[in-house]
Write the structure tokens for this entry.
Amino acid sequence: MSIRYALYKNEKIAGKDHLVARVHTIGTLDKEEMLERMVRSGTTLTRTDLLGAWELIEETGRTALLDGWGISLPLCHARLSIRGVFEEYDDRFDPHRHKVVAQFQSDGDLRRAIYRDARPARMHAEELRPLLLAYYDVFTGQRDQVLTPGGIGRLYGNRLRFDPDDPRQGLFVLGADGGVVRVKQVAENRSRKLIFLVPPLPAGAYKLAVRAAYSGEKDLDVGFLDGVLQVGSPEALPEGPARPFPLLRLPE
């Protein structure tokens, strides 16, 4: 698979028209997802075996670092260091002025493999926005059709993770009448999946949108789910001809 990237203006260099490449990360694999990839790779080890070995490596590495050892593994090297300034030679460690931190560095073999095998492929910048692929309504079992107020919804896609403490970011339900509701109860906030409680909504037609910052950037990007979701049966919807959604705007 190619390493996809897009070009952006470098705002840090005043008066320059330089462009910088921003790599598009498909997502972040946690331990559970890494284990699933290991199982699918065709190994003869069971998932239980892999989990046990993984947890043993984690615990062994953690205790080794705390005992004062450095660690050198195929993926990275790790060691502990102390940050802060000591005033004199007889000055002692003070947790208010000093901090023990773990430092990690990629392994040389890994760096050489990346230099050798990585295949960059340019993409358009707008492709980096949150990608909403499918919505599954748990109560009805339907996909990309209905919203059930008070029920559980699952939204699948890519780059969906957002900062819940930033009111500008989040999962939004957009009404055909121009109303906007930010979903407050999100049980699972991952790059590829959001699990949430559908807020109270009157009968009508709605769209889902996710707005988030990409890779810690200040600028926010928004993505929309294709298609329209319905609350209530067709008989419960307001009478009259169907109207197209107005220009969709999210709160600043």
The chain is about 15% helix and 35% strand. Residues 3-122 form a domain with the HU Protein; Chain A fold (CATH 4.10.520.10). The longest helix spans residues 47-66.
